[in-house]
Amino acid sequence: MYEVIVIGSGCAGSTAAIYAARASLKPLVIEGLEAGGQLTLTTDVENYPGFPEGIMGPDLVDRMKQQAQRFGATYRHGAVTRADLSSRPFKLWIGDERLEAQTLIVASGASARWLGLPSEQALVGHGVSSCATCDGFFFRGQPVTVIGGGDSAMEEALFLTKFATDVTIVHRREEFRASKIMLDRARANDKIKWITNATVTEVADPEAKAVTSLRLRSTVNGKEWDHMTSALFLAIGHVPNTDVFKGQLDLDEQGYIVSHGGARTNIPGVFHAGDVEDRVYRQAVTAAGAGCKAAIEAERLLEAEG
Ligand code: NAP
Questions:
Q1: What is the Å distance from ligand 1's center to 154 Cα?
Q2: Which of 282, 285, 286 is the pocket-test mutation for ligand 1 (most atoms within 8 Å of CB)?
Q3: Residue 148 beta carbon below 6 angstroms from any ligand 1 atom
Q4: Hey, is 191 helix, strand or coil?
């Protein structure tokens, strides 16, 4: 029986673990399928306070984990496959293994969104990727394409210019959601080409087990054409990892946890932290702040209950 179980090991989860561990609550952190969370898929983090020269994403989460472990947090591999939040202690399962906790901090984050085309799914790992930092290297000297109009798309495209002959950003609108600084940086890079007002309708060629071209459709006049490319990188946002809590925690229509004030969910003793609830800011520093809040609330609840 744990006093606190933290679900997720990204910025939010590890910060919650640091605070809970320093409060002598001996938290267990269940790392999840993507241990370390989204920062493990990124390169330079330039906006996390305290690192004026920047820090590599995987480095930052690893340091947070070490910090939590130093105060007595335990990390274990695995993902929660089932949860029963109907009464306390709360019950969680990792496969057949059952765990119990007085309080839970849900910091399970969000995972990359896919277009959902069968041809795209057939080519994941064969030229279709949601992680330029992981897979960009394989496309050295080849043309690649990034889908999306946010900061992630700009960041991935800029990163890919290190390897690719050229990088085309395909975006479904004319306006970009990306911040001005990221957009300006991408616009200043000669290797980046732009196709706006277009969506992907098909990825060729699943038969060849490689990406050879994309079928694009104009959102203005519906015309279709083929765009030759060797890889497709998706940067079209994320979906929250809340499937195991459906029907128990209050979720919005996109699946994000609905906050009941502070770090509270609709179930007393279950707290949220990070991108699993935050669809607005979604930054490493806001996730860390949310982890801190959740741990303080868990600690106060346990203390009030004696
Ligand atoms: P985002 O801001 O939600 O942008 C997603 C982009 O994908 C949007 O341009 C969206 O188009 C497009 N999109 C969504 N679904 C699509 C679909 N089915 N087909 C085609 N296009 C689709 O997500 P993000 O770029 O991952 O950024 C998330 C957060 O992380 C943001 O707060 C961002 O600032 C932050 N971030 C910061 C940095 C940095 O500062 N270095 C780097 C990465 C991310 P519409 O615009 O038409 O909706």
A1: 9
A2: 282
A3: yes
A4: coil
**Separation of CA 239 and ligand 1 centre (Å):** 12
Distance from Cα 265 to the centre of ligand 1, integer Å: 26
Whether ligand 1 lies within 6 angstroms of the CB of 151 is answered as: yes
**Cα(75)–Cα(254) distance, rounded to whole angstroms?**
29
Q: How far apart are the first and last CA of the chain?
A: 16
Q: Distance from CA of residue 232 to its chain's centroid?
A: 19
**Could you tell me if 155 and 182 are in contact, meaning their C-beta atoms sit under 8 angstroms apart?**
yes
Tens of pLDDT, residues 1-50: 999 999 999 999 999 999 999 999 999 999 999 999 989 877 788 889 99
* 278 close to ligand 1 (CB < 6 Angstrom): no
Q: At 267, list the tokens.
A: 């179930």
127-143 per-position pLDDT tens digit? 999 989 878 999 999 99
To test the ligand 1 pocket, which listed residue (236, 281, 285) has its Cβ within 8 A of the most ligand atoms?
236
The Cα-based distances of 234 to 11, 68, 130, 170, 237 in angstroms read 23, 33, 5, 10, 8
Nearest to 177 by CA among 207, 154, 199, 211: 154
Structure tokens at 211: 């990406």
For residue range 145-193, list pLDDT tens digits in order. Answer: 999 999 999 999 999 999 999 999 999 999 999 999 999 999 999 999 9
Taking CA atoms, 104 is separated from 70, 93, 234, 270, in Å, by 21, 13, 32, 5
Rounded to whole angstroms, the Cα distance separating 82 from 246 reads 10
39 token code pair: 């920062």
